[in-house]
Design a protein that fits this description.
0% strand; Arc Repressor Mutant, subunit A; 159 residues; SANT/Myb; DNA-binding transcription factor activity, RNA polymerase II-specific; mainly alpha; globular
């Protein structure tokens, strides 16, 4: 079972800000591991996500624009699914936002066709067997569909 996230304190935010500034902006990636060493009980990933998603500012929330989608597609071609690099190219979205947008909406490998009766029966059976573990159901039964599409279809069928 994953550990419950611990809320960031104002003091931790202050230390994180100080360490990121000290790490410099010389064009090289920051050493999040070195920064995390200054924050007990925080990992490099914790620090990177806190900085990129909450402290750095300038991130948009809500619907994606066509321009953002285009920057995301171009960056995926350039960097693959290296989300921190992709988010730097997109500029207005975090790595997590970029990953979710790509994996749930833009990836051309996603099956967007209408659901068949057979698929719907399989979906209902999978939910009876696995509960609402959407990622697991998607991976086992519908690898070409987006996880969110699987969940949404179930909710539509069960209305």
């Amino acid at each position: 079972m994953p550990k419950a996230p611990k809320k960031w304190t104002a003091e931790e935010d202050r230390i994180l800000h100080q360490e990121v500034i000290a790490a410099g902006e010389d064009g090289r990636p920051r050493s999040w591991t070195a920064i995390a060493a200054c924050l007990p009980n925080r990992t490099n990933k914790d620090c990177r996500k806190r900085w990129c998603n909450h402290l750095v500012g300038g991130l948009r929330k809500g619907p994606w624009s066509d321009d953002e989608d285009e920057r995301l597609r171009n960056s995926i071609q350039k960097h693959g699914q290296q989300w921190p690099l992709v988010s730097e190219d997109v500029r207005t979205r975090s790595g997590d936002q970029c990953a979710k947008r790509w994996n749930q909406a833009l990836d051309p490998a996603i099956d967007r066709s209408n659901w068949t009766e057979d698929e719907q029966r399989t979906l209902l059976k999978a939910v009876r067997e696995h509960g609402r573990s959407w990622k697991q159901i998607q991976e086992l039964y519908f690898p070409e569909r987006a996880t969110n599409n699987v969940k949404n279809r179930y909710n539509y069928v069960e209305r």
